[in-house]
Amino acid sequence: MPVFFGVPVDAAYHIVSAFVGILTLLLGGMAAATAIVLFTMAVRLLLVPLSYRASRGMDAQARMAPQVQALQKKHAGQPEALRREVAALYRAEGTTTFAGCLPVLAQWPVFSIMYLLFRSPHVGGTPNTLLSHDLFGAPLGSHWLGGAGPFSAHGAVFAGLFVLLAVIGWQSARMTRRLTTAGTQPGTPVQPAGPAPAGPAPAGPAPAGPAPSGVAPAGAAPVAVARFAPYLTVVVAAFLPLAAGLYLATTTAWTLAERAILRRVRDSKRSALGILRR
After folding, report:
1. Higher pLDDT, 160 or 176
2. CB 136 within 8 A of CB 153
């Protein structure tokens, strides 16, 4: 475990352990698994303001994508002029090119702390007792291919986790596909479906018409990656302890619900502004 994560991971460990102690009176053997889920949800709730800022920043980038694309065409071969014009456009809109990615990066240390807590066999130099508890007989510190193996009650618990992650991934890919389809309609900028990677904003929808022979349409690879990336959580969970898999399922489910809710909030605000301007 990295040294600079030692203190926060130790603090988080004591908080979750306290949750387990309280929940044991009510839930017995389900206390530790429930504590992992509740702690993850509580932390994600505290991070909602950052998630909202990231979502708002990506929304602004998507809204300005056609204008950025027009500037790229106007200043083709003039990188300095393009940089000045794009910077002026973002200033006029009251945002920056980093408005979407900075809040995402700010959340990364918190996610790292939780991930380390639920996968590390030792915390603060002592055994991680959270991993000694079980879920339906499967130890929270066990792995899919360990113990009695995949074809057992232990394996059935992991199979249930994999199915849950696959369903979450399917819903996430479905949402991405829906947003991408909506964004490729004429005159409609593509709406990012998740946290944007660091770097320049998307240049907008690809021009209409067939791509040259042997050349993939612009943006085809990123869209394909965005569609299938959610299913990678199933592969990741197969190599993690059960406790970390529970955390992964909880946080990805939260992300999916959060995306849907924040999108509705943004759509409602845009509709309200449209009514006021009439």
Report:
1. 160
2. yes
CA distance 128 to 138: 16
DSSP string, the chain: --GGGHHHHHHHHHHHHHHHHHHHHHHGGGHHHHHHHHHHHHHHHHTHHHHHHHHHHHHHHHHHHHHHHHHHHHTTT-HHHHHHHHHHHHHHTT--TTTTHHHHHHHHHHHHHHHHHHH-SEETTEE-GGGGSEETTEETT--TTSTT-SSSHHHHHHHHHHHHHHHHHHHHHHHHHHHHHHHTSTT-PPPP-SPPPSSSPP--SPPSSPPPTT-PPTTHHHHHHHHHGGGHHHHHHTTS-HHHHHHHHHHHHHHHHHHHHHHHHHHHHHHHHHHHH-
pTM for the complete prediction? 0.73
> Sorting pLDDT into bands at 50, 70 and 90, what band is 167?
very high
Rounded CA gap, 141 and 240, in Å? 9
Contact 103, 111 (CB under 8 A): no
The rounded percent of the chain whose pLDDT value lies above 90 is 42
Residue 194's φ and ψ, nearest 5 degrees, are -160, -170
List Cα–Cα distances, 245 to 74, 119, 146, 214, 251, in angstroms: 49, 9, 14, 41, 10
